[in-house]
Amino acid sequence: MRPLRLLSYLAPSIPEGLFELVAASLRARIGVPVALDFETRVSGPAPDSDPFASGRADLAFVCAPSYALLKEAGSPVELLPVAPVFVDPRVEGQPVYFSDVVVRTGHPARRFEELAGGVWSYNDRYSRSGWQKMLDRLAEIGHAGGPERFFGCLLQAGSHLRSIEFVAGAKADAAAIDSNTLWLSRRRDPTLPGRLRVIESWGPMPIQPVLARAGLDPSVRSGIVLTLLCLHEDRASRARLEEFGVKRFAAVDEASYAAIRPIGISVAGGSGSPAG
């Protein structure tokens, strides 16, 4: 039997262990082998690297703008109607998250506008929380020149974790961080809350979607959905989910992601670095 190919673009910012738990649960519940792989260079695919068209993936965890890009390009992909709910009390039990703008504790900025001319770190330009929401915020304040003219320097970190390192280590002035990554990082490093502070939070936004290859066997697809929706009902699985800041998986639909637009990706102003 050919394995179900599961691919995550969200690690290491969201720990690999969460996707290992998903893979193991699918193997046990739907009785098919599962091959797990990670893409750490970007937070989601573009049409020229479509894992569903190339046969690399049957199931993928991606950042939401990539779903819009793939759909617009006619990719053989569809939304799996289930997504994680994290423990952040701001989400109020819904499959949403926030983008938290962080600076060093001693930094003078108190709001986003005061970051003009500074060094902005971002994970990659496929990211909703790390890049697209920043573009939205620039539009809100009426800045029409783009981030290259607002900031003094744009520093591509390759992952939210490295953006946190860059800001905490004074290599960058600020970054917009996936709120769940920030929560996990603070739990792992108890010194971090004393070294970083949040000046703005953007959201809520629909949580990163789970995508499936169009044409996936319907019984396998329904088995995946049921397995994820019921995962928290098993005591051991629930404890593992909580390690990664996840309460459960919940139902989602296309309407949740309808407002997310495709991103025009450019490389101006970036200095590439692999996710680490």
Tag the structure with descriptive keywords.
globular; disordered C terminus; five-stranded mixed sheet; alpha/beta; 276 residues
Structure, described:
Helix content is 33%, strand content 23%. It has 276 residues and is of the alpha/beta class. A five-stranded mixed β-sheet has the order 2-1-3-11-4, with helices on both faces. It has a five-stranded mixed β-sheet with strand order 8-7-9-6-10. Strands 5-12 form a two-stranded antiparallel sheet. It is globular, with a radius of gyration of 18 Å. It starts with a strand and ends in a 25-residue tail after the last strand. Mean pLDDT is 93; it is low at 265-276.
